[in-house]
Design a protein that fits this description.
single chain, 324 residues, mainly beta, 5-stranded antiparallel beta sheet, 4-stranded mixed beta sheet, 6 helices, 34% strand
């Protein structure tokens, strides 16, 4: 359950040591110093005009950290897809900074790039975070920074500016989940959840949605059951209503061996459909869950193409319900 995961201590997978930098990387960094961007601060409360960077058209950008001059620099690429490296898009000018949502645990912090119209630091609050081609925000999460030797300079800088602590870095290292013989850690694209009411998108039908429930000192990997969506026709004397359901794996679609129709729909006429849904975890208020620590996944909103439903003969309206 969500509140249990947020406060529980994760089991240790052995000793977790923050990796040291690679000496060869230091040499390479020294050779490139003339072309690297020196970053003076990552604190978004006081951006420095000298940290303004124009990344447009570059495949990557080399940076070094003024507060960790003995550490190697860092190469920051934009995006890789199918073995192909994509350049930073137009108007990729602005400031690198450390991002942390106001109510989020420190372990969820990440390096981002805020695009601005000019080098004036006063424009930082009205800027926009750089986006990836798939719509996600470009970022380097603390989970990667804590584990990779190439991020030693960035780690040292974050510690110097007191944007993270050694304890937070250690927590980022130890959050993991065993999957067979493999040990998995949150990745750059991982969905992180730390509170009830935090909304996220799912595409239905979905075979698997994986997310990480994180707290201030622990985290746990959670895999949601397969979700599907159908519309069932409810016929009345004067009209037909299509009621749309979202079904979890335990109550998913099962074809009756007798009627060859869906058992859940009671042999009624139904249509599978695709939908993108905005969902959130909540404590259950259902009477049967009173006195328990039961969590439900609520459908907050959904977007679908209802043209096919609305044009079916006799169908005058469609209403949506959720069943998880």
């Amino acid at each position: 359950m969500l509140d249990t995961a947020l406060n529980s201590s994760s089991s240790s997978q052995g000793e977790h040591c923050i990796p040291k930098s690679d000496d060869r990387a230091k040499v390479a960094s020294g050779l490139r110093k003339g072309s690297t961007l020196p970053l003076r601060t990552l604190n978004q409360a006081r951006p420095n005009v000298e940290d303004f960077a124009d990344l447009t058209g570059r495949v990557s950008r080399s940076v070094r950290f003024a507060l960790a001059p003995e550490e190697p620099g860092l190469e920051m690429p934009y995006f890789k897809s199918g073995g192909r490296t994509i350049q930073f898009p137009p108007e990729s000018q602005g400031f690198f900074y450390w991002h942390l949502d106001p109510d989020a645990p420190p372990v969820s912090g990440q390096l981002r790039f805020r695009t601005t119209r000019s080098s004036d630091p006063a424009r930082f609050p009205t800027g926009r975070d750089l986006q990836l081609p798939d719509g996600r925000t470009w970022n380097i999460p603390l989970f990667r920074i804590a584990r990779g030797s190439k991020y030693s300079g960035l780690r040292a800088h974050l510690l110097s500016e007191k944007l993270v602590t050694a304890d937070v870095l250690h927590t980022a290292l130890k959050i993991s989940s065993r999957r067979g013989e493999r040990i998995e850690h949150p990745a750059t694209s991982s969905l992180l959840i730390w509170k009830f009411g935090q909304r996220f998108l799912v595409d239905l039908p979905s075979t698997q949605v994986t997310l990480w429930i994180i707290g201030s000192s622990a985290g746990e990997r959670l895999v949601l059951p397969s979700l599907s969506s159908v519309c069932v026709r409810e016929s009345r004397e004067s009209e037909s209503t299509w009621i749309c359901y979202v079904l979890g794996e335990p109550s998913g679609l099962h074809i009756s061996p007798h009627s060859a129709k869906n058992d859940f729909a009671g042999g009624a006429d139904y249509i599978p459909f695709k939908v993108r849904a905005l969902v959130q975890f909540e404590r259950s208020t259902l009477p049967e869950h009173k006195g328990t620590r039961t969590v439900v996944l609520r459908i907050v909103n959904s977007w679908q193409n209802q043209t096919a439903l609305m044009t079916r003969p006799g169908c005058r309206k469609c209403r949506t319900m959720a069943w998880i």
